[in-house]
Amino acid sequence: MPYRAWFQCISGCDVRYELNEVIYQCKNCGDLLEVRHDMERLRVHSAEHWKRLFDERYRRTKWPYGSSVWGKKEWVCPTVENKNVVSLYEGGSNLFWAERLGKELGLEDLWIKQCGNAHTGSFKDLGMTVLVSMVKQMISDGKNIPAVACASTGDTSAALASYCAAAGILAIVFLPKNKISHAQLIQPIANGALTLSLDTDFDGCMKLVREICSKNNIYLANSMNSLRIEGQKTVSIEMVQQFNWEVPDVVIVPGGNLGNTAALGKGFLMMKDLGLINKQPRIVCAQAARANPLYLSYLTGFKEFKPVKAQTTLANAIQIGDPVSYKKAINTLKNFQGIVEQATEDELANASAQADRTGLFCCPHTGVALAALIKLLKRKEIQPHEKVVVISTAHGLKFPEFKINYHESKLAEVTSQFANLPVEVPPQYDAVKTAIFKKLDQTAS
Predict the structure, then answer these.
(1) Concatenated DSSP letters for 239-267?
(2) Peptide bond before residue 422 is cis, with ω within 30 degrees of 0
(3) Are 79 and 137 in contact (CB under 8 A)?
(4) Strands in 336-434 per DSSP E
(5) Per residue in 211-226, pLDDT tens?
(6) What is the pTM of this model?
(7) Which of 172, 190, 358, 399 sits CB 3.0–4.6 Å from 101 for a disulfide?
């Protein structure tokens, strides 16, 4: 029997839609869809079979299974034929033991899942490979899809542009003008995407791209499209695989549009359902205080959820006040003893800089997650002995202005506790020696 998957409503409407159907919301109630798998078919094989198979494929070269996403193809998107897979060897990112940072924070076992060590520099590659592969499959089957489009705060547009360029499909990206870094802006430009710079915020871009896609048969690539969640859920599976199939106690993830929070939970639930693991971690979603609708909902026990007008934040990729995946995220957090915490601009900038001083190079969104960790440790909601994984969602090299302005103490509302500027000295031995030993003395004290 073949492996099967389909779309189904997250609210329980008993209607199925095929994965090659251009649809993002339930036709009955309008809620988001999720990908469901034929779990009975997957249970034909034992948990040990799946562990062995995933380990045998991991980071090898047999197409397309060396990708850490497509190495789990049966669990992700079995509908796509191998010839239509669009892969850039995504996944397999470093699970970094942050020993020194953990000791500074009072944590014995801290790990950073460096999803930014990816082809386009963020975790978005994991979902985009699935989505663009499905589009290529649909085009191969005769569907008329002239282009794929997304609204973005930077990373989604980079991933979409790169994967569409590899597939030979036009990418259209809607970006809020002057709200993303130059490093993020140049990526879709370099990959040949039609790059639309709009004088609005992400929520405004999102509203417009949905209208354009619905009226012009252009395929929507934002995280309301649950094909992306299928790729992103492999973060959970991969980290457990890297821990030799042991589950951490706590996983902390930055939250903007909230698809990643839902994806993490989905990966853990699937492993537990198929017997690969026997416990679940607690999941923490960390939001910027300037874009915190899920945090505000958490304070009410999730009794209500209200969008907010997102304010400008250094963590621009999660500067989202009306996240489309909030229901999925809330369901996940309820299932995983979830916590939502927020971080101010000062907290996220200094947490990121402190981590950098221990060998990392964190994006501001990882700074949000680290700041949440610091708060939860102080409140004893995370214990010093627990194994904690922080999801680093993007590479710090995408945010040079953030780094430079921090060390030059130019960030509003931030007191740069770890600023480290170059020391200007004349090209003379004595002057250089004096500067070196002054630093050594400061370090010793």
Answers:
(1) HHHHTTS---SEEEEE-SSSHHHHHHHHH
(2) no
(3) yes
(4) 339-343, 387-392
(5) 999 999 999 998 788 9
(6) 0.94
(7) 358
